[in-house]
Amino acid sequence: MHWLDGALPFFAHFLLWSLLSVGGAIGLLPDMHRYLVAEHHWINDAQFTSALALGQASPGPNMILFAALLGWQIFGLPGALLAVVGLILPSSLITVAYFRYSRIHRERRWVRAMHDGMAPVTVGLLLSSGWLLARHEAADWQRIGLIAATVAVALRTRLNPLWLLLAGALVGALGWI
């Protein structure tokens, strides 16, 4: 695909996603998937999931790497730059402005409301991202059981999530799933 075809709407969506990245950009996965995979067919499910896995496995700013990979797959180097700038710029500018203002005016009602209201929004976005990723993996009862057990252990214990990742890797390496 030539990078000029659809580059402006592509960039505009990354700008919008930046504004919606409350609690982290991982909460944007369902809408990114909808727009890039389901609506425009610029990439497929496997490419989307592979980009996410590579971005998350890499050290550094994971979602920025993920966005760069998506942009690269769709529009090459210009797409990678558009995705990264689009995802970073608006939220960074708003965050800096908000924290400067809220530090000075922390007792204002709307500042307190913003702090209190962001937690449920963040939880909802993270749950929708988890659902998007889990529904593709829930192909049989063993995988559904593994997903349910992982969620239960994560919610009921203070076990470091890295141990859960290790357990999942061992289950996969042994061929149990």
Could you tell me the mean pLDDT? 86
Helix/strand/pairing class, anyone? mainly alpha
Estimated share of beta-strand residues:
under 5%
**Low-pLDDT segments:** none
Largest sheet: none
The global form is globular
DSSP summary: helix tally: 7
Q: In which range does the helix fraction lie?
A: over 70%
SS elements, strand count: 0
Radius of gyration over all CA atoms, rounded: 18 Å
Distance between the termini: 37 Å
Give me the strand/helix succession: HHHHHHH
Structure keywords:
177 residues, mainly alpha, 7 helices, globular
How would you characterize the overall build of this protein?
The model has no long low-confidence stretch (mean pLDDT 86). The chain is built from seven helices and no strands. The chain has a domain of 111 residues. The radius of gyration is 18 Å and the shape is globular. α1 packs across α4. Helices cover 79% and strands 0% of the residues. 20% of the residues are buried. By secondary structure, it is mostly helical.
